[in-house]
Amino acid sequence: MPEQPDPTASNQPNQPAGSDSTAPTQPGHYGFETLALHAGQEPDPLTGSVVPPIYATSTYKQDGVGGLRGGYEYSRSANPTRSALETCLAAIEAGRHGLAFASGLAAEDTLLRTICAPGDHAVVPNDAYGGTFRLFSKVLERWGLDSTPVNVSDLDAVRTAVRPGRTKVIWIETPTNPLLGIADIPVLAQLARDTAALLVVDNTLATPYLQQPLPLGADVVVHSTTKYIGGHSDVIGGALVTADAELGERLVYHQNAMGAVAGPFDAWLTLRGIKTLGVRMDRHCQNAERIVEVLAGHPRVVELFYPGLPEHPGHDLAVKQMRAFGGMVSFRVHGGEPAALEICDRTRVFTLAESLGGVESLIEHPGRMTHASVAGTPLEVPADLIRLSVGIESVDDLIADLLQALG
Ligand SMILES: Cc1ncc(COP(=O)(O)O)c(C=O)c1O
C-alpha cells in the first residue's frame, strides 16, 4: 500500500473532505507516470468516482460559522478540483507547493509581484517567449521592476547583468522558445544563491517528464499548462511549483489575493492531460528526432535548431539535465521571410497556428505570430525562422507533409 502522504508536501486544503488520502503524492517513492496518474486523484470519498469530480461551486456550506469541511470556504481561495491538479503538479515537478492559474502569464504575473517589489531588477532571457518579455517590459516596468535581457546560455553575460542587492530574479527558459537554447540550471541556481536572487525556470517546453528544475536547484518552476501539460489544445492554464515551504505560503496568499486562479473545468481538463504526459512526450520526441534527420539534409534549410543535434551548442548540457530533447524544432530557410511564410501556408497535416505542445502538429512563423510583440527589441527573431510543434501523428505523414511544403 502507498504510504500516507506527508501533509506538508502539498497545498492545504488539498484533499476533498473525507478523502482517504492514500493516493501516491510523494516524489521519490513513485515513478513519474504513477504520480501523474494518482497524485491528488484518490477516488472520490462520496461515490468512489475514480476521476476527481468537477466541483462547479463558488462557495461551501459551513457547519456553523468557521466550520469548514476540508478547509474549503470560497473557490478563489481553494476548490477541490483545482486542489487535485495542484497536488499533482507539485508531485510531478518534485516540489511541495503547486498552484494552478488561469494562464501561464497569470502565473508569471502572480509570481513576479510576490517575489519582487518596485525598484527591484530581473535578468531575463534575450530569447524568452514574447509574452513573457512583454509582461516584463510593458507591464511590470511601469510598476517599477527593471529587467535586463541577456543570453542565459552565457554565464558571464548573466553574471555581468546581475545588479547586486537589486536583482531579485534570474528568469530562464530552457529550452528557449523559439530558438531552443539551453541554460545550465545547476550553475545558474548557484549564481542566484550567491547573489540572493531566486532562479525561476519556465519549464513549459521541456515539461517535468523531460526535466525537473527543482531538484537541480531552481527555486520556482513556471508552466504554461496550455502547452504539453494540458496537451490537447483545448485549455488555457498556468502553474507555479516550488519546494520552499515559506515561498509556497506567500504564493498561495498572493494567488488568493490577486485572484487569477484556474477554474474547475479548466483544472479538470489539465489534470486529464497530465495522465498521458509521459507517453505523449516519448512520441513527441521520437517524431521530432525523425523530422530533424530529414530537415538536416534538406537544401532549403539554412540553419536547424534542436538540442538533440550533437552540434547544437547546448547539446552536452541538454544530455545532462534532460531525459530527451523535446518536440519543438525550429529552422531558417533560404529565401527569407517570403519563403518562410509560403512554407507555413503550404502544410496540410501541420496546422498553421500559434501555441505548441498539443497532440496535433502545428507550424508557425514566430516573427509574425507568437513573437510579433518583440519586433524591434533585442529579442527580435529571424524573419526566415519557422517553428514546428511536432505532434504525435504518424511520423511518415508529417515528413511527407513537410517535404511537399518545402517543395
Ligand atoms: C514558454 C512559454 N511560457 C509562457 C507562456 C504563456 O502562457 P499562456 O499563453 O498560457 O499565458 C507561453 C505561451 O506561449 C510560452 O510558450
Please give the structural blueprint:
Elements: H1 32-38, H2 80-92, E1 97-101, H3 104-115, E2 121-125, H4 130-143, E3 146-150, H5 155-161, E4 167-173, H6 185-194, E5 198-202, H7 207-210, E6 220-224, E7 238-242, H8 245-258, H9 264-275, H10 277-296, E8 301-305, H11 315-321, E9 328-333, H12 336-346, E10 351-352, E11 362-364, E12 385-389, H13 395-406
Parallel strand pairs: 2-3, 2-4, 4-5, 5-6, 10-11
Antiparallel strand pairs: 1-7, 6-7, 8-9, 9-12, 11-12
Helix pairs in contact: 1-2, 2-9, 3-8, 12-13
The structure holds pyridoxal-5'-phosphate (PLP).
Pyridoxal-5'-phosphate (PLP) is lined by residues 103-105, 129, 131-132, 173, 177, 202, 204-205, 224, 226, 236, 238.
What's a quick, concise take on this entry?
The chain has 407 residues and is an alpha/beta fold. Helix content is 35%, strand content 14%.
